[in-house]
């Protein structure tokens, strides 16, 4: 009898592990986030009526955040450099939701102009009276080899992605500590957790953000109702590649390549909002095989280094051959 019970328990354990492995194969986010998406709070319930300030809202993930937040009923402050694009996003938000014109404030913002951030934050707070959620989404990527990249590019990446984000955060945070609640959500990247070729400066800026916000979170233990959350997406369909820095500040990207193999922006943003609604402190969002790399770096770094070096070598070869670095991992570079 005892043997039957033990055998049954082992079968249940094996079945449990099999189901988890099967789920992992098809997963596109970490287990905490997926669990929240299935059994946690719904964004449309938790975020309705909240004031959300989104930077980098004129395109890509920021634009999609505006649309989905509008459908949730959030009041929006949309910021980026291009005011005409922000107005376009606002019009689309009004068309796809029940929000009224006064529920969305367009607030042009340049993350590099840090001397303006105090006044911009003051204007944002005055318009709605408070800010519930700040989503730090503004920034640029990089596609260039270290040996060919100007130091000016590295400086620009740190000024924009890191210091610009820190500056806005430092302006909003006192408002949230005074209220005793709020959420600061920062879009990092998979390269904020692990390095990648062609993105030495970008990875450095995202590592800096990870370190800053992980440390900030520990400083705010006296404010349990303030959420500090970082989002680490893998490849997502957006304009980040088209707008990436190259080896020189003024040199544009030659071609962005096909984006169809990447995660749809709408899925990435939905998972982000699920994480915000459920207070998830760090979100890993990526399709396979990229999600596997997150776990490998966390639990098997030696194995992760082997895989990263193998794929990294291929990525550099493809880049030098003029192929798109993001789509050509498993194709042979064409040689003349």
UniProtKB/TrEMBL annotation:
The keyword Protease does not apply. The keyword Oxidoreductase applies. GO terms for molecular function: oxidoreductase activity. Keywords: Oxidoreductase. It comes from the Eukaryota. Belongs to the short-chain dehydrogenases/reductases (SDR) family. This is Dehydrogenase/reductase SDR family member 7. It comes from Cottoperca gobio. The gene is dhrs7.
